[in-house]
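testing teh design pipeline on a random one, pls ignore if ur not involved
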C-alpha cells in the first residue's frame, strides 16, 4: 500500500514539474528553478501543499527529476535546463491547486 501511495505522490510531483514548464514556456528553467517557483507559489498563496518542504530536500528533488526524465515527461540538456516532451505537455495540462496555480511566476 505504501508503494502505491509513493507512486501516486511521485506522479503528482512530476505533473507539478510539467505544469510549471507549461505555464512558463519562455523561461529556461533548471530543476532548482522549478522547485523554487513551486515553493514560492506556496508561500505567496498561503496554501500548504508541501512544496516548501520538498524544496529543502535535494535528494528527493533529484529523484523526481530523474523519474520525470525516465518516464519521458521532460528532457534535460547538458546545461541542466528542462524542457517538456510530448508526454510532458500532456501531463502539464493537469492543473495545480488554484491558489498555487495563480502564484506561479
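output:
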Amino acid at each position: 500500500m505504501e508503494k502505491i501511495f509513493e507512486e501516486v505522490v511521485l506522479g503528482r510531483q512530476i505533473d507539478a514539474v510539467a505544469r510549471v514548464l507549461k505555464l512558463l514556456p519562455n523561461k529556461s528553467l533548471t530543476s532548482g528553478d522549478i522547485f523554487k517557483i513551486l515553493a514560492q507559489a506556496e508561500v505567496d498563496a498561503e496554501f500548504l501543499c508541501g512544496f516548501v518542504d520538498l524544496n529543502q530536500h535535494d535528494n528527493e528533488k533529484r529523484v523526481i527529476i530523474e523519474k520525470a526524465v525516465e518516464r519521458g515527461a521532460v528532457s534535460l540538456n547538458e546545461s541542466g535546463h528542462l524542457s517538456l516532451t510530448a508526454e510532458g505537455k500532456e501531463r502539464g495540462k493537469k492543473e495545480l491547486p488554484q491558489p498555487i496555480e495563480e502564484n506561479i511566476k
